[in-house]
Amino acid sequence: MKKPVTFFLFILGIAGYVACRADAAPPEGMAYQSTIASDGVQHVRIEGGSYFFKPDRVIVKVNVPVELTVSVEKSLIPHTLVIQSPEAGIAVDEKLSSDAKTIRFTPTLVGKYPMYCKNKLLFFKSHREKGMEGVLNVVE
Ligand SMILES: [Cu+2]
User: Fold this and answer.
1) pLDDT in tens, the chain (140 residues)
2) Which of 29, 83, 124, 134 could form a disulfide with 92 if both were Cys (CB 3.0 to 4.6 A apart)?
3) Residue 122 belongs to a domain
4) Residue 31's CB: how many other CB atoms inside 10 A?
């Protein structure tokens, strides 16, 4: 009687395939999943430049303090980091430099919040439109 085993394996295969598909995130840049360090803080490092944030998707846990360390590559073009989601306890609006800056906040609401550079030169496209944006994903 080999058939039941084969059937069982077949079902397992399908279940595994479905699980994998559900986990597969669309390839839209790199995601950084933070972990809680021994000091109880989620340390996240973001580097920016013309015109990107790396990583551009950051996943943090709700109600756990976050410490962002942000710097930009040396350049004459000024950059900022903005995350304006006061409903989630996040109000970031910082000028960036090549010296790393530390920004602390504690996200209080699950959700996906845009982060971006608000700078724009005259009639040119904004830095955000040029790709200097990302998502802060606050999860349970
Ligand atoms: Cu910028």
Assistant:
1) 456 555 554 544 545 444 444 444 444 567 899 899 999 999 999 999 999 999 999 999 999 999 999 999 999 999 999 999 999 999 999 999 999 999 999 999 999 999 999 999 989 999 999 999 999 999 99
2) 83
3) yes
4) 15
